[in-house]
Write the structure tokens for this entry.
Amino acid sequence: MDNNKPFRPVLLFAVCAALFVWQTSESLPPMVASHFALSGTANGFMPRTLYILFMLAFVKGLPTLTNIITQKASGNPKALLNLPNLDYWLAPARRSETISFLRTCFSWFSILLVSFPCFAHWLVVLANRSQPAHLAGPWFLSDLGIFGVAVFIWVKVIRGHFST
């Protein structure tokens, strides 16, 4: 079994996300408004270079960390997996399929983890185009809400798969 097959699209997505962050950061001012109050008013700033490095670490680091944890946990027969009917799902006849399903699910989760900060970054870029910088709060809340709904659906899919 190719252990990294489900993760390859995630790597491609993360590379594209990193390119997106890099390209869109060119228009940012030397001091980036990077934190905002609930009202959308900027209340935290950081140098552009530090902001870019921070965002790149997010979009590359989160999927990498998720992959490492998933690989370690799914490759270790003594890993603490919390699945209903664990003995059934990890029986030799089903173990490979179960591990493949979990790796695919965590690949999708990695894509969610990259998408959320990418959209937030885009909102920061737009916020920094105005003076004073102002974040479009409803758009950020929409991003957060979509992320929350997507994670809820992700959990439901996993629970549904293992409810047998």
Residues 92-127 form the longest helix (36 residues). Helices lie at 8-24, 48-75, 86-89, 92-127, 137-161.
